[in-house]
Amino acid sequence: MSVYWNERTRRLQPYVPGEQPKDRNFIKLNTNENPYPPSPKVIEALRKAVDNTLKLYPDPTCTELRETAAARFGVKAGQVFAGNGSDEILAFAFAAFFGKLTQEDKSGEEFLLFPDITYSFYPVYADLWDVPYKTIPVKEDFSIDVAPYLEMIHHGNSSGVIFPNPNAPTGIALPLDDFKKIATAAEERKRVLVVDEAYIAFCQKACGQGTCGSTIPYINDFPNLLVVRTLSKEASLAGLRSGLAFGSEELIEGLCRVRDSFNSYTMDRLALAGTVAALNDASYYDEINSRVIATRDRVSSGLKALRFKVLPSEANFLFAAPPEGSGKNGGELFAALRERGILVRHFNKPEIADFLRISMGTDEDMDVFLKACQEIILKQ
Prior knowledge:
The protein has 380 residues and is an alpha/beta fold. The chain contains 13 helices and 13 strands. It has helices spanning 7-11, 40-49, 63-73, 86-97, 121-128, 146-154, 176-188, 231-234, 249-259, 269-279, 282-305, 330-339, 363-378, and strands at 27-28, 80-83, 111-115, 133-136, 158-164, 192-196, 225-230, 243-247, 309-310, 317-321, 342-343, 345-346, 356-359. Helix 5 (121-128) links the parallel strand 3 (111-115) and strand 4. The longest helix has 24 residues, at 282-305.
């Protein structure tokens, strides 16, 4: 603690990202990056963007990018927000929509709702913006339990709802019928629902329209719905920092008001150019992400053959626990894999301490991973 910190800074518990090693070559399966390179069209667009115009500020409204995204996803440009990665957009959403709704609101009885096992940045944002929140336990099978959300919303105890779909770190997707139940209840109370679709490109569940499993097609049905996407995973652009949000024009305007009170130029010229090119090359990304899905399903089968407990994932990672009686818990398996030059993610939280989140690498990387798991488990 520093004597120079204010009270807000003192009480924050910052988010801790996955390890990015610099002193050793690892097989990196710990940060859900796409194992395949960006589209060649993205690289070409970035090279062209490195010119004399870098001396000028970028377009603060990201017009070309929003128009491109609107055409890609079948919405209006006014229903699209662009930001410096989905994490920034999520931070703006917490500031814009959750907590006290009016200056006169002194009840203190309304809470932002999200699962108890989910993206660990959510409580960090809530603490940063002084948003009271409650976590809702997931079911025994780690899927999201819709009933408690509906109950708290109907009783006026919710200032809003946020969850990833598929959820992280479990990888389990919420059926669209359940999403509609929450969205309907929240709209009746005029509360915002944020669906964080960081991994939706790897979801194979049929939804009847639009990107498989995506809730973007429903933003016209639910004016309270904000759908957040990232280019980090689905477009192999984790190093570029680019994100999008889709929602009613009044929700987008709310995000703009927060952004323009913070930094009007959140996306630089290179990020804008690269993201436009990525959105215009859907066929390339459909192909590489299909490869990721195939690898995920193969690795899942391989782990199950070793008697691992593997949750049904619709993301670009698996959430798995070593077999009972193997002599290895999650933390020990994490350490053993690291010794062998393989990084995965371990969350030291009681409910999931025996699980590891395993990002999908190339098939060659995953063969090394499966062989290491076999040797570690069978050695016991």
